[in-house]
From TrEMBL:
It comes from the Eukaryota. InterPro entries: S04_transporter_CS, SLC26A/SulP_dom, SLC26A/SulP_fam, STAS_dom, STAS_dom_sf. Keywords: Membrane, Transmembrane, Transmembrane helix, Transport. Residues 583-687 form the STAS domain. GO terms for cellular component: membrane. Pfam families: STAS, Sulfate_transp. CDD domains: STAS_SulP_like_sulfate_transporter. The keyword Nucleotidyltransferase does not apply. This is STAS domain-containing protein.
Length: 695
């Protein structure tokens, strides 16, 4: 009988005292004592222990531990269903409202107002030094904003003053409600092009400008309503359906179309097609060359375009001269206007802006149309414009916030954008959002807070009141050159290359959006980009991938043997991990057949002519699997039945909450004998105890 079995209680006590004495006293053992001590320790550790008082076997603690951990998985509480989540959300909102009602109005009104209007928080620490920085930044921003706003209004097929209107009220409202310190609000090129390309199909902006304006204001209201709803209902994830790669491609395509459309102003062409695909525009430009045209427009526009681009280059090389590229557009407007006025070039064929209506934003409430024949189309356009405008604004805000080291609240941003566009639709503004080029100028000018937006809006307001008459002789070629100078910022070739290098599917979405905008239409480019992004999500979620796992030497970790060639497979065991997040009708049969193919491929014929398998156990690692449907559970049952025919056991490890719940309801856990474990190592040790999972 083994010494540990025959040992009495006194002998165990003596052994314990001897061990303690040798350790504490640090007594050096001679060779004989060391050998005897080692043998005694090994015998007591390896041999089956016996209770000294009753003679009953002491339970295997490791085995009991595995059993307990299996119960942790199987006895987990039932996961909450969809209705439970909705109910909890409603109850949570109700409890918050109830707690607010129980408090005095004065105690909860202030936090609510501070949450809605962040300016109430940061204005407490606002100083004169910060105001000086914001004043300089705001004036610099206005010098760029005024000519750009006029140019973008013409791009949206509106009169120039509507671009200036859009640079007054929306920035003021954003300054009260927004969370970004640097973002510059106003009209932008992409949204202007999107509006004109979609709405001129409903009304001709040249033949019936009044009806076209009504459509623009109504779409602006719808857009603002959607944006505010996204913020209030915390639906910001909808904006993320336009992936980064899709936005890069869409912006580049839109920049190309905008640039081609500016050939009308740059070359002084009388008419250019309303279509937005590259073939139609180039065809219209070629056809216009047969008509008489004045080269003075081209000379004037190209000269000042070169001037603006040179100033931008100088500003990039010398950061202290940041004001050069910022003021170059305004300087171009002033100089070109003086040239036309002094030379009377308008009499010689140079096209000019002419009359810009002066005064504050007029009300446009009476121009909103909800009962017209295009109401549904306007709502759809408003949704598309809302998503595109939010995608641009949020990406701009997050980019500069990360540089400055603070966080912007996406839901508050959406609410602020929504409120400012709703208010804008009532005051003759069209859709405003964050501009990347103007935000970059704002940052380089040293802005500290959104007060720079307030300064910019006040400057534009003064211009509307006092200076619009001075813009009468401004040549349209200059507006085209200003828009063209801003387009390089929309094309990011470096980022496109990085997307290609990192993820080919993302690059497919990028070029899909680019070519869709370029050769079909703005809407089609967006549709292609979103469709490819959705397809990528679905493909990644249900991709029928599996990988064979092996144990990393010296650890209990099991990893992909292809990624880690040093990982060693356990003899007689096939450990497989399902790589997809969902085991469903789209991939379940593939996974089942893939596993069976591995098992059958390793079978050999013994000397008696019988099939003999290499594997005795298949361990299915479900750590990546987030959910499973009825087709998935049925395929697992079929897999188990076929493995049993071949004399192979099946065990599963680390199933997620939803997965184990559905497997229990399908009675699959009982069918496989409760072989559910936390790790692959535990599954191997439990199912093949003689091997002890060793490699």
């Amino acid at each position: 009988m083994a010494p540990s079995i025959a040992a009495s209680e006194n002998e165990l006590s003596q052994f314990s005292q001897t061990l303690q004495t040798k350790v504490v006293s640090s007594v050096l053992l001679n060779e004989t004592e060391l050998s005897q001590f080692s043998q005694t320790l090994q015998t007591n550790a390896v041999s089956a222990a016996t209770d000294f008082t009753t003679g009953e076997a002491i339970p295997d603690l490791e085995k009991n531990g595995r059993a307990e951990r299996t119960l942790w998985i199987l006895n987990a509480p039932e996961p909450p269903g969809l209705w439970r989540k909705l109910l909890d959300s409603v109850l949570s909102s109700g409890n918050k409202l109830k707690s607010l009602k129980e408090k005095p109005v004065s105690k909860h009104a202030i936090p609510i107002f501070e949450a809605m209007f962040p300016i109430l928080l940061w204005s407490r620490n606002y100083t004169a030094t910060k105001f000086k920085s914001d004043l300089l930044a705001g004036l610099t921003l206005a010098s760029l904003c005024i000519p750009q706003s006029i140019g973008y209004a013409t791009l949206a097929k509106l009169d120039p003053q509507y671009g200036l209107y859009t640079s007054v009220l929306p920035p003021l409202i954003y300054a009260l409600m927004g969370t970004s310190k640097e973002i510059a609000i106003g009209p932008v090129a992409v949204v202007s092009l999107l509006l004109s390309s979609m709405l001129q199909k409903l009304e001709n902006p040249v033949a019936n400008p009044a009806a076209y304006r009504k459509l623009v204001f109504t779409v602006t209201l719808f857009s603002g309503a959607f944006q505010a709803a996204f913020g209030l209902l915390r639906l910001g994830f909808l904006v993320d359906f336009l992936s980064h790669a899709a936005i890069v491609g869409f912006m580049a395509g839109a920049a190309a179309i905008i640039g081609l459309q500016q050939l009308k102003g740059l070359l002084g062409i009388t008419y250019i097609t309303n279509k937005t695909d590259i073939i139609s525009i180039l065809e219209a430009v070629v056809n216009s060359t047969h008509s008489p045209w004045n080269p003075h427009n081209c000379i004037l526009g190209c000269s000042f375009l070169s001037f603006i681009l040179v100033m931008k280059s100088v500003g990039r090389k010398n950061k202290k001269l940041f004001w050069l590229p910022a003021t170059a557009p305004l300087v171009s407007v002033i100089l070109s206007t003086l040239i036309v006025y002094l030379t009377r070039a308008d009499k010689k064929g140079v096209k000019i802006v002419k009359h810009i209506k002066a005064g504050l934003n007029p009300s446009s409430v009476h121009q909103l149309q909800f009962n017209g024949p295009h109401a549904t189309e306007l709502a759809k356009t408003g949704l598309i414009v809302a998503v595109v405008a939010l995608a641009e604004a949020v990406s701009v805000g997050r980019s500069f916030a990360s540089i400055k080291g603070y966080h912007i609240d996406g839901n508050k941003e959406m609410l602020a954008m929504g409120v400012m566009n709703i208010a804008g639709s009532l005051t003759s503004c069209y859709v405003a959002t964050g501009s990347f080029s103007r935000t970059a100028v704002n940052v380089s000018s040293g802005c500290e807070t959104v007060v720079s937006n307030i300064v910019m809006a006040a400057t534009v307001l003064i211009t509307l009141e006092l200076l619009t008459k001075l813009l009468y002789f401004t040549p349209t070629a200059i507006l085209a050159s200003i828009i063209l100078s801003a387009l390089p910022g929309l094309v990011d070739l470096t980022e496109a290359y990085n997307i290609w290098k990192i993820d080919k599917l993302d690059f497919l979405a990028c070029i899909g959006a680019f070519f869709g905008v370029l050769f079909v239409s703005i809407e089609m480019g967006l549709l292609i980009a979103v469709a490819i992004s959705f397809a990528k999500i679905i493909l990644n979620s249900i991709q029928p991938g599996t990988e064979t796992l092996g144990r990393l030497p010296g650890t209990d970790m099991f990893c992909d043997v292809n990624q880690y060639p040093m990982a060693v497979e356990t003899p007689g065991v096939l450990v497989i991990r399902i790589k997809s997040a969902l085991l469903c009708f789209a991939n379940a049969n593939f996974v089942r057949e893939r596993i069976l193919k591995w098992v059958i491929k390793e079978q050999v014929v013994d000397t008696k002519g019988n099939l003999e398998g290499k594997f005795q156990l298949v361990v299915l690692d479900m750590s990546n699997l987030m959910n499973i449907d009825t087709t998935g559970t049925a395929s697992l049952e079929e897999l188990y039945d076929k493995l049993v025919i071949h004399g192979i056991e099946l065990a599963i490890t680390n199933p997620k909450w939803q997965v184990i719940q559905k497997l229990r309801l399908a009675n699959f856990v009982n069918k496989i004998g409760g072989k559910v474990f936390l790790t692959a190592g535990e599954a191997i040790d439990a199912c093949l105890p003689t091997r002890m999972g060793s490699v």
